[in-house]
Design goal:
Structural class: alpha/beta
Order of helices and strands: EHEHEHEEEHHH
Shape: globular
Strand content: 25-35%
Number of domains: 1
Distance between the termini: 11 Å
Helix content: 25-40%
Number of strands: 6
Number of helices: 6
C-alpha cells in the first residue's frame, strides 16, 4: 500500500485528515513517522504559498507522495485577519487559548451582525518535489462572544458556522467534518489521491 505523508506534526490536524481520507488505498502517516525531516518555514504571504511549500519540500526530502494544508480564519471586521497568521496570531509562543482570547478582545464591542468570518483551507498534493494538484474549501459563519465547547481545536470554540447556533467545538468532530473548510478541501483532494494511486 502506498504511503501518503501528511506534512504536519499537529496530532489534531492529522486525526481529522486521516478520518476524511479513510477508505482510500493509502497508508496515511505524519512527519512523526520519519527522522530528521527539516521543519518547513511557513513564510508565505498566502495560504496557497504555504501549502505548496510544505508539500514540495516534504515530498522532495522523503521522495514520497505528500499532502499539506494551510488553514486560516478570515474575520471581516478585522480586514481578513488573522488569515495566514492564524496559528501565531497572539505572537511568539501562541496557543489556541491565547489566539482565541486576542480575537475576542479585538471584537469586544462588535455586534453579532458584524462578526462575520470564514475558515479557509488550501490543500496541496506533491510527489517527489512536484505539485500534482491543489484544492480549496471554505466554511463561513460568525465569531461567538465567548468560547463554547470542548471538541476540536484552534478557533473551533469561537466559530459558529452558518445554519447552526453552536460552535464547531460544540458540534463535535463528526458533525464538524461534514461542513468544515478542511473536509470540503479534502473531499476534492481525495478524488485526486484516489485517481493518482489507483492508476499506478
Amino acid at each position: 500500500m502506498k504511503e501518503l505523508v501528511v506534512a504536519t506534526r499537529n496530532k489534531h490536524k492529522l486525526k481529522e485528515i486521516k478520518t476524511l481520507l479513510k477508505g482510500l488505498p493509502v497508508r496515511v502517516v505524519s512527519l512523526d513517522n520519519f527522522k530528521r525531516v527539516p521543519d518547513v518555514i511557513e513564510d508565505g504571504l498566502t495560504l496557497e504559498a504555504n501549502a505548496r511549500k510544505k508539500a514540495i519540500q516534504v515530498s522532495k526530502f522523503l521522495n514520497k507522495l505528500a499532502i499539506a494544508d494551510d488553514s486560516g480564519l478570515e474575520v471581516e471586521a478585522l480586514g481578513g485577519k488573522p488569515g495566514v497568521y492564524s496559528a501565531r496570531f497572539s505572537g511568539k509562543g501562541a496557543t489556541y487559548d491565547s489566539n482565541n482570547k486576542k480575537l475576542l478582545k479585538l471584537l469586544k464591542d462588535t455586534p453579532l451582525s458584524k462578526r462575520k468570518a470564514c475558515f479557509r483551507c488550501v490543500i496541496s498534493l506533491a510527489d517527489k518535489g512536484r505539485i500534482i494538484g491543489m484544492a480549496e474549501g471554505k466554511s463561513c459563519g460568525k465569531i461567538s462572544f465567548e468560547p463554547k465547547g470542548k471538541a476540536g481545536f484552534g478557533y473551533d470554540p469561537v466559530f459558529i458556522p452558518n445554519g447552526s447556533k453552536k460552535t464547531f467545538a460544540q458540534l463535535g468532530i463528526r458533525k464538524k467534518n461534514k461542513i468544515s473548510h478542511r473536509s470540503r478541501a479534502l473531499l476534492k483532494a481525495r478524488k485526486l489521491v484516489k485517481s493518482l494511486v489507483c492508476n499506478r
